[in-house]
Amino acid sequence: MKRLTRAPNLITAQHWVNVLTTAGVPCELHNRYLNGAMGEIPADQYAPEIWITDGRDEALALRLLERARNGPDANARP
Hints:
- This protein is of the alpha+beta class and about 80 residues long.
- The protein has a single domain, classed as Alpha-Beta Plaits.
- The protein is built from 3 helices and 3 strands.
- The protein has helices spanning about 10-20, 45, 60-70; strands spanning about 1-5, 25-30, 50.
- It has a 3-stranded antiparallel beta sheet with strand order 1-3-2, covered by helices on one side.
- The model has no long low-confidence stretch (mean pLDDT about 85).
């Protein structure tokens, strides 16, 4: 297991997990329920995190998340 990234919120994190899973990249969403501890623990401890099962998938996973963050390519043809 390798931490890939932190997400700004749970909705975004779940979207990213869906993107990766659909592309065949096994992953897990961690810190799903820690928002309730906001203010009790440091902010960097409760953010949702995406972890990939196999570190060899890291480059592909990062490319997929970059595409998910930026939306469809305006220059791409359907």
